[in-house]
């Protein structure tokens, strides 16, 4: 960030602070490149002049609703503005066209009631306070007026409020495009009620969020010519499968398991269920209940939502029967068998749970037992049956549980889509993307790799749509804009997805080669990317690798990459379930055409995800995007706590926000130009005049000396011209 040039003794400034990110104070001395600052918290700090930023002493005490209205556009100014607004429960702030939403961690019903929706309906952007409804309104109006599809990209870290924001967007779009007074299940009702269904099966309590979505989601609302919702489709991405079998304290498994254990007694009896503490897949963590959540009520609410979405009672019974079967399956334990590397059921309890699983899945108990402890290998000469040791049998059990659960989740998504129905005649859509934000933990595995790959893609999309568009315009108009150049992330994306030779391709190769281990995979990466600026091999490690992402460097542990990337169903499991006498269960395991052909195609989670992302990007590229950046103000998930360091970290890492700061950086030393332009904008509001003024400024200022001022002015003029254009529409 470039420091300001006009700091003098007596200036009020912001200086960096390890505890608070930024603190304010007054300059008491300047010696050479150093400034001495008396901070408001009583410390005297010496800092480099380049790292000190002017503070606007006349800023309104409640902050400004758009960051571009700040006199000084810099990081401490932005942070302070968000903090001031948050204190007043003003959780929304614009940065130009981008909405920043700070999670209030408390219900603010007045913000989202029907009265509020009525207010935003038809209101021009910026006319009312910043709001999710305003973003949905802009998207909807743009769609109606320009006949173009729009999308709203909601990003942020876990617990920042993406899902809640998405729900508000959907509610508002359903309000605008819904059929009020229509009897029966409308498309919009079904879309809204699909949320609780997906949440019951795809959300769980994690350390960072009590209701964390463990999958990504893109909801596409289709509209007819008159702007009514005529169809919808939900696309989901990468459900976290490992959670079905493995949880750590104080997290929980997927909500549906606890709901079913709290179902009315007759249901529990039917499924032979009891206390969640008695199930291995649930009792690895001591957390069973969520504060303020009644699982019995949630069970009934989920069933009601399923009714609305169009899932029949029979199907609902089958769904919960499968959920119960997974719980019983998790309690099947193994002991060493008589032969080497073989196993048997551990005890009578395991036998009971195995029988219960078989009964619920409507398959043969002996076949289930064999599918868990034996493997059949077909060679050209003979058919060999191999037994599994207890550890491998446990692995086989967990693999079966994960496969069944993920197939069940996919079934639900398909059912929702079929039931809501698609409108083949719809020409325009509004898509809402609620997808995991950038992640960097102490230990990062394949999941983080995929999540960060997604964020790189979204970052590229943002670059292309916002900056490249601007750049193209400037280039066309022969304006030098070199100092707003941004770091392109094409090279990281190549490193990840290039075919052949990218990380995903190398991982697939490793998975197909039987002798590969995570070590040989890591060695291959080291060798391939030894000259890449974006790749490093951490010293002393033989299996980890680091990628320099747009939001920072992340070190990945390659140890489980191979296992997690393999996307196949054990043949014995497939054969077992396809033979189920229950059509629902058998239907979860259809035999694919390629499986029946002689050449079995290798399929990997990474490659499939890459294709899904490609298709998502194609959809997004055909729409006019809008951005909402959700921010989590604290890690204790409580209202009224705004932790500066936490927030700044998110703003620096976030898709879009990072780029916003680029503009801010570019503008920062020239803040007085902002004031001048604000004055001009306040005086002028005619569209034609904008264009004229823009050309005039270009002609007058487009010479070497004033180039930087001209670019700032033109940038702002364009922005405001576009906005005034929007309002005229
Ligand atoms: N606008 C809001 N009003 C009130 N509470 C909110 C709002 N946004 C978020 N919250 C609270 O924060 C919690 C976390 O929000 P949410 O589940 O939307 O986060 P997320 O970003 O989708 O997280 P994840 O990526 O883990 O799914 C919610 O359960 C809710 O309690």
From TrEMBL:
The chain crosses the membrane at residues 696-717. GO terms for biological process: actin filament organization; actin filament-based movement. Residues 613-635 are annotated as: Actin-binding. Residues 62-653 form the Myosin motor domain. Keywords: Actin-binding, ATP-binding, Calmodulin-binding, Coiled coil, Membrane, Motor protein, Myosin, Nucleotide-binding, Repeat, Transmembrane, Transmembrane helix. Belongs to the TRAFAC class myosin-kinesin ATPase superfamily. Myosin family. This is Myosin-17-like. It comes from Raphanus sativus (Radish). The gene is LOC130509352.
């Amino acid at each position: 960030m470039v420091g300001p040039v006009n700091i003098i003794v007596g200036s009020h400034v912001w200086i960096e602070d390890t505890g608070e990110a930024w603190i304010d104070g007054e300059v008491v001395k300047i010696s050479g490149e150093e400034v001495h600052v008396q901070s408001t918290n009583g410390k005297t700090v010496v800092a480099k002049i380049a790292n000190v930023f002017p503070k606007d002493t006349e800023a309104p005490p409640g902050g400004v609703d758009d960051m571009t209205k700040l006199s000084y556009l810099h990081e401490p100014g932005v942070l302070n503005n968000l903090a001031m607004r948050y204190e007043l429960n003003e959780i929304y702030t614009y940065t130009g066209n981008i909405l920043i939403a700070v999670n209030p961690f408390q219900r603010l019903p007045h913000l989202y009631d029907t009265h509020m929706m009525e207010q935003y309906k038809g209101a021009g952007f910026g006319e009312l306070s910043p709001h999710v409804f305003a973003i949905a309104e802009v998207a909807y109006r743009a769609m109606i007026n320009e006949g173009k599809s729009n999308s709203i990209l909601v990003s942020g870290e876990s617990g920042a409020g993406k899902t809640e924001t998405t729900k508000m967007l959907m509610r508002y779009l359903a309000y605008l495009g819904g059929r009020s007074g229509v009897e029966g299940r409308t498309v919009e009702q079904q879309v809204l009620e699909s949320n609780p269904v997906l949440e019951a099966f795809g959300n769980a309590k994690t350390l960072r969020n009590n209701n964390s979505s463990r999958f990504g989601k893109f909801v596409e609302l289709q509209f007819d010519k008159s702007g009514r919702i005529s169809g919808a489709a939900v696309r989901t991405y990468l459900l976290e499968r490992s959670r079905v079998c493995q949880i750590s304290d104080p997290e929980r498994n997927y909500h549906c398991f606890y709901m079913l254990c709290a179902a009315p007694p007759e249901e529990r009896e039917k499924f032979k269920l009891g206390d969640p503490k008695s199930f291995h897949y649930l009792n690895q963590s001591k957390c069973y209940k969520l504060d303020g959540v009644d699982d019995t009520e949630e069970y009934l609410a989920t069933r009601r939502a399923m009714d609305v979405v169009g899932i029949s009672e029979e199907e609902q019974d089958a769904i919960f029967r499968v959920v119960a079967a997974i719980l019983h399956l998790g309690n099947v334990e193994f002991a060493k068998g008589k032969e080497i590397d073989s196993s048997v059921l551990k005890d009578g309890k395991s036998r009971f749970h195995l029988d219960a699983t078989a009964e619920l899945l409507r398959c043969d108990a002996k076949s289930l037992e064999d599918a868990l402890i034996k493997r059949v290998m077909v060679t050209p000469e003979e058919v060999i049956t191999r037994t599994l040791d207890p550890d491998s049998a446990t692995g086989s059990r967990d693999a079966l549980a994960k496969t069944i659960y993920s197939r069940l989740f996919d079934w639900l998504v398909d059912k929702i889509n079929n039931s809501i129905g698609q409108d083949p005649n719809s020409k325009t859509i509004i898509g809402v993307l609620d997808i995991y934000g950038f992640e960097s933990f102490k230990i990062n595995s394949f999941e983080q790799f995929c999540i960060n790959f997604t964020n790189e893609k979204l970052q590229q999309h943002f670059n292309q749509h916002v900056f490249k568009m601007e750049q193209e315009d400037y280039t066309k108009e022969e304006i030098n804009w070199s100092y707003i150049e941004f770091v392109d992330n094409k090279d990281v994306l190549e490193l990840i997805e290039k075919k052949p030779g990218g990380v995903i391709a190398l991982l697939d190769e490793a998975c197909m080669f039987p002798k590969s281990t995570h070590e040989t995979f890591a060695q291959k990466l080291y060798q391939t990317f030894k000259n890449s600026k974006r790749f490093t091999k951490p010293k002393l490690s033989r299996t980890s690798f680091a990628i320099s992402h747009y939001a920072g460097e992340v070190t990945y542990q390659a140890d489980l990459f191979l296992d997690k990337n393999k996307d196949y169903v054990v043949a014995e499991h497939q054969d077992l379930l396809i033979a189920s006498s229950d059509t629902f269960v058998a239907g979860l395991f259809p035999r694919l055409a390629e499986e029946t052909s002689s050449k079995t195609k290798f399929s990997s989670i990474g490659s499939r995800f890459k294709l899904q992302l490609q298709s998502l990007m194609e959809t997004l590229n055909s729409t006019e995007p809008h951005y909402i950046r959700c921010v989590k103000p604290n890690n204790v998930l409580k209202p009224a706590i705004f932790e500066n360091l936490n927030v700044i970290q998110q703003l620096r890492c976030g898709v879009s926000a990072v780029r916003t700061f680029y503009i801010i950086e570019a503008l920062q030393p020239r803040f007085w130009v902002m004031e001048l332009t604000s004055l001009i904008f306040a005086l002028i509001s005619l569209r034609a005049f904008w264009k004229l003024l823009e050309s005039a400024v270009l002609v007058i200022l487009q010479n070497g000396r004033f180039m930087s001022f001209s670019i700032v002015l033109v940038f702002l003029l364009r922005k405001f011209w576009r906005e005034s254009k929007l309002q005229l529409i």
